[in-house]
């Protein structure tokens, strides 16, 4: 119970901190809307006006992923720049439990992208927000976000090992959008991308949200797989985070970029 | 004249090396070479699946667009990083023409953008199987170079705005996102509303992408020349605008003593 409270309070604290950055807010306000507009015009140009809801949902998921990717990728580096990394690592809790709220907070702020793209689509393009299964949609979106937050921990722990984590974060945005089928169906991609897609929680999360919105399949199995993979990522991330923390302490390199 | 050219050329290269001393080969390859390639593949597969246009449309358009990331952000950094590193005051104290100093800085970014665009186009053509007529290559190279230059001057204009407004990165990020939407690179211009088409006409990339598509289609340089000239005019317009804004905001920041305000 205390652990859950710590994660919740930590996530809220970091979400509040993220909400104090005018740059973060303005970027999060504008970029997803631009992407949603692009998706809507692309689907219209392709003669698929019936799939505009799918486009808006897909663009929203893309925004959530961007938020998790850049937030988790920069989680450690940002704490280092703020001079709070040592204090975080000195906390009498496993490092993974201290970093997880940061990655959850980035996913939480990413929900804005989903809300914004749906509202934008409804208000400007008159896309009817008639979800095939509204209850499942209401569960699938937060479920997907929590899953991505856990996946973010694995990313954050991996990025600690890399001096140039920014290079990786800048590279991973489009491949994950593509392979996870957020806008492009996985069946349209080359066959070798299938196994990669299958092990990514983003694929199953996007699938669950899309199925809830369009009724194209059973939501719960997809959401279950997404959460199971994310949980595995959480465990892996926790092990890696502990290993990296011990190594950084021993080598006295924690504060070094 | 030689001194001026030296100031523009050598000064630009030295500033480029100084302002990018933090970058690494991994950062360059990951952000500037691999990133745009995946962006191209994403839109090519999406366009293919929706039946919007063929691969050639997306490969050519996104290859031209690939230069924008390095050039727009580079142009912005040419001004804002001086401020961030605390060296802007030294540059503005120079007895030489600041217009020449700053305009010269765009050249290395444009060369970098050209390299990225060529790499992206070559890799995507190999991966997706686009055949470009051999006689179109010189014209295509020229088109990509002009697009990179236009993006560089566009970025410098945004950088100049950064002398007056603090959150210049926000402007750059949003501008790069808008280039995706408004330049007709991913959505054919006919599918966009009139106001978006008009805005796109005033931005870099739009005309260069059109010129590149004509060249790749084998229409010849003569068919692409009007669009290429339009892109060149856009580049010149942004260069003049950047020079003007830099002059005005420099005077303003001296008057208000806000040069190093972050």
Automatic annotation (TrEMBL), chain A:
Zinc in keyword set: no
GO molecular function: ABC-type transporter activity
InterPro entries: ABC2_TM, Nod_factor_ABC_transporter
Keyword Acetylation annotated: no
Residue ranges crossing the lipid bilayer per the database entry: 21-43, 55-76, 97-123, 135-162, 174-199, 219-239
Pfam families linked to this entry: ABC2_membrane
Domain ABC-2 type transporter transmembrane: 16-211
GO terms under cellular component: membrane
Top-rank lineage group of the source organism: Bacteria
Key words, A-Z: Membrane, Transmembrane, Transmembrane helix
Protein name per the record: ABC-2 type transport system permease protein
Organism: Micromonospora parathelypteridis
UniProtKB/TrEMBL annotation, chain B:
Similarity comment: family membership: Belongs to the ABC-2 integral membrane protein family.
Keyword Lipoprotein among UniProt keywords: no
Compartments where found: Cell membrane; Membrane
Annotated ABC transmembrane type-2 domain residues: 22-249
Gene Ontology CC terms: ATP-binding cassette (ABC) transporter complex
GO biological process, one term: response to antibiotic
Designated name of the protein: Transport permease protein
InterPro entries: ABC2_TM (IPR013525), ABC2_TM_bact-type (IPR047817), ABC_2_transport (IPR000412), Nod_factor_ABC_transporter (IPR051784)
Keyword Protein transport among record annotations: no
Any matching Pfam family: ABC2_membrane
Gene Ontology MF terms: ABC-type transporter activity
Membrane topology: Multi-pass membrane protein
Predominant localisation class: membrane
Keywords: Antibiotic resistance, Cell membrane, Membrane, Transmembrane, Transmembrane helix, Transport
Residues passing through the membrane, by range: 26-45, 57-79, 106-128, 140-161, 168-187, 228-249
Organism: Micromonospora parathelypteridis
């Amino acid at each position: 119970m205390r652990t859950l409270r710590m994660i919740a309070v930590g996530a809220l604290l970091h979400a509040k901190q993220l909400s104090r950055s005018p740059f973060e807010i303005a970027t999060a306000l504008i970029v997803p809307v631009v992407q949603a507009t692009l998706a809507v015009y692309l689907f219209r140009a392709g003669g698929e006006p019936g799939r505009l809801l799918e486009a808006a949902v897909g663009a929203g998921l893309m925004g959530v992923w961007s938020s998790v990717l850049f937030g988790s990728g920069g989680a450690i580096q940002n704490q280092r720049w703020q001079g709070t990394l040592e204090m975080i690592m000195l906390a009498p809790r496993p490092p993974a439990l201290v970093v997880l709220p940061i990655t959850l907070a980035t996913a939480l702020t990413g929900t804005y992208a989903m809300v914004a793209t749906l509202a934008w689509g409804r208000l400007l393009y008159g896309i009817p927000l008639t979800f095939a299964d509204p209850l499942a949609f209401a569960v699938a979106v937060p479920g997907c976000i929590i899953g991505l937050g856990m996946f973010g921990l694995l990313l954050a722990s991996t990025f600690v090992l890399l001096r140039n984590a920014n290079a990786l974060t800048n590279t991973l945005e489009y491949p994950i959008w593509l392979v996870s089928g957020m806008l492009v169906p996985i069946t349209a991609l080359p066959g070798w991308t299938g196994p990669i897609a299958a092990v990514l929680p983003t694929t199953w999360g996007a699938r669950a949200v899309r199925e809830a919105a369009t009724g194209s399949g059973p939501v719960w199995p997809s959401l279950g797989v997404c959460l199971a993979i994310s949980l595995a990522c959480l465990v892996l991330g926790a092990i890696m985070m502990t290993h990296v923390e011990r190594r950084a302490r021993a080598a006295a390199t924690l504060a070094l970029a | 004249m030689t001194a001026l050219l030296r100031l523009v050329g050598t000064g630009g290269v030295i500033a480029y090396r100084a302002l990018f001393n933090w970058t690494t080969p991994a950062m360059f390859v990951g952000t500037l070479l691999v990133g745009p390639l995946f962006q191209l593949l994403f839109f090519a597969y999406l366009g293919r699946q929706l039946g919007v246009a063929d691969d050639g449309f997306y490969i050519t358009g996104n290859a031209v667009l690939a230069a924008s990331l390095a050039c727009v952000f580079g142009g912005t950094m040419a001004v804002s990083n001086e401020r961030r590193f605390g060296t802007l005051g030294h540059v503005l104290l120079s007895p030489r023409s600041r217009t020449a100093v700053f305009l010269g800085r765009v050249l290395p970014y444009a060369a970098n953008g050209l390299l990225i665009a060529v790499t992206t186009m070559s890799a995507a053509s190999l991966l997706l199987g686009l055949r470009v007529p051999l006689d179109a290559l010189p014209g295509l190279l020229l088109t990509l170079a002009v697009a990179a230059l236009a993006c560089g001057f566009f970025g410098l204009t945004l950088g100049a705005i950064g002398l007056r407004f603090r959150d210049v990165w926000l402007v750059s990020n949003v501008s790069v996102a808008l280039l995706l939407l408004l330049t007709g690179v991913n959505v054919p211009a006919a599918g966009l509303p009139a106001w978006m088409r008009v805005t796109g006409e005033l931005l870099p990339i739009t005309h260069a992408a059109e010129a590149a598509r004509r060249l790749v289609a084998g229409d010849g340089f003569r068919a692409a020349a009007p669009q290429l000239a339009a892109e060149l005019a856009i580049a010149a317009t942004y260069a003049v605008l950047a020079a003007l804004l830099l002059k005005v905001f420099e005077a303003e920041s001296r008057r208000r003593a806000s040069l190093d305000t972050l």
